[in-house]
Model the fold of this input.
Amino acid sequence: MKASIYTGPGDIAEALFWTKPGEEKPKKPTLDLSNRDEEEILILKLLLEKGESEIDQISYQTEIPLGMLSSKLLSLEFEGIVKSLPGKKFKLMV
Done:
């Protein structure tokens, strides 16, 4: 999720992908790997395969150092692609 300006209840419903009965749901964004660097692609493919994973396991399996991995995961979280979970776990949101 990103910060956005609140102008009314419709903004919340739109941000949370809520709909009225019979109304078509807005589509969630799809995962596009074409403009990602090599490390981000490794992270996203791993999370796509595993569902959710701890940061230590992601680092071990992708061979990305923890410092760089933390930075990449934070960047992906700001974009709304990855979500941080309790216990240093991450999951794919798209």
Observations:
- The mean pLDDT is 85.
- The longest strand covers residues 82-85.
- Residues 28-92 form a domain with the Arc Repressor Mutant, subunit A fold (CATH 1.10.10.10).
- The CA atoms of residues 1 and 80 lie 5 Å apart.
